[in-house]
């Protein structure tokens, strides 16, 4: 199951009203409720789209769209000021987060490649009744699934860390931008975890079907029924096609995450 986004960033308006200093309420208001810039509103729309979709192709497309919106937002002076704020380490934390996220997406691409190859090998082995080749492909499949589980946990941890960033030191318009940037990073990581988990679920379902054929007795394996070998061949082919179609989208997302980090790095280390 793809993880939900229950740990996304929220900014408590109601508790703030019970404080003895109501003048601080405005500084922690939810970004996006009265967005001061169209690009900020666009970013919040992209974040909302991410949280509404975890299916692999749509999820990848939404992550890429979010980073495109983030690239536009990073051009604004207010974003630059928020990231260079001397009283906050937001910029450094975001640099770390996007580095880890880029690594996760690179690992995801490698997993999909290994899963496609394993699916192709399994199809060929099932058609030929080659149990040795099928066992080898199953081991590759299992390794890729374990790596997907690790990547899912890693992306979820990135999202959690971003959501817990302390932005109290940032105030005014800079605070609104800082909140938006951090929320975007958390949403991107959470959506990535959902996509990785969805891929693992698809792969696991197909792998389970394949295992039923692996343990069919030899006499039955010679004349497979439509519900066994041939049906599994079709499922493996569908999985192979799905992951193959995601390849270009995976590359786009990886490049967009890298570009986001490059933009952040350029802001944090201006030329003299």
Automatic annotation (TrEMBL):
Q: Name one Pfam family in it.
A: BPS1
What is the protein's name according to its record?
Answer: Uncharacterized protein
InterPro entries registered for this protein in UniProt? BPS1_pln (IPR004320)
Q: Name one GO biological process term.
A: root development
**PANTHER family, sorted:** OS06G0725500 PROTEIN, OS06G0725700 PROTEIN
């Amino acid at each position: 199951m793809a993880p939900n986004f229950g740990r996304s960033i929220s900014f408590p308006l109601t508790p703030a009203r019970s404080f003895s200093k109501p003048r601080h309420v405005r500084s922690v208001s939810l970004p996006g409720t009265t967005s001061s810039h169209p690009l900020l509103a666009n970013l919040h729309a992209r974040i909302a789209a991410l949280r509404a979709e975890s299916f692999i192709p749509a999820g990848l497309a939404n992550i890429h769209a979010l980073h495109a919106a983030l690239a536009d937002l990073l051009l604004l002076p207010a974003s630059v000021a928020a990231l260079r704020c001397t009283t906050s380490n937001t910029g450094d934390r975001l640099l770390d987060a996007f580095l880890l996220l880029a690594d996760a997406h690179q690992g995801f691409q490698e997993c999909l490649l290994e899963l496609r190859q394993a699916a192709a090998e399994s199809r060929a082995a099932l058609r030929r009744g080659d149990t040795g080749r099928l066992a080898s492909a199953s081991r590759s499949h299992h390794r890729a699934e374990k790596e997907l589980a690790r990547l899912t946990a890693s992306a979820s941890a990135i999202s959690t860390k971003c959501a817990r960033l302390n932005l109290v030191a940032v105030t005014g318009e800079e605070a609104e931008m800082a909140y938006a940037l951090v929320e975007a990073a958390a949403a991107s990581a959470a959506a990535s975890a959902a996509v990785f988990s969805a891929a693992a679920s698809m792969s696991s379902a197909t792998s389970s079907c394949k295992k039923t054929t692996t343990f069919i007795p030899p006499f039955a394996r010679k004349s497979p029924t439509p519900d066994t070998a041939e049906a599994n061949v079709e499922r493996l082919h569908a999985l192979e096609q799905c992951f193959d179609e995601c390849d270009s989208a995976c590359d786009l997302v990886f490049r967009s995450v890298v570009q986001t980090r490059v933009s952040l790095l350029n802001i944090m280390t201006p030329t003299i």
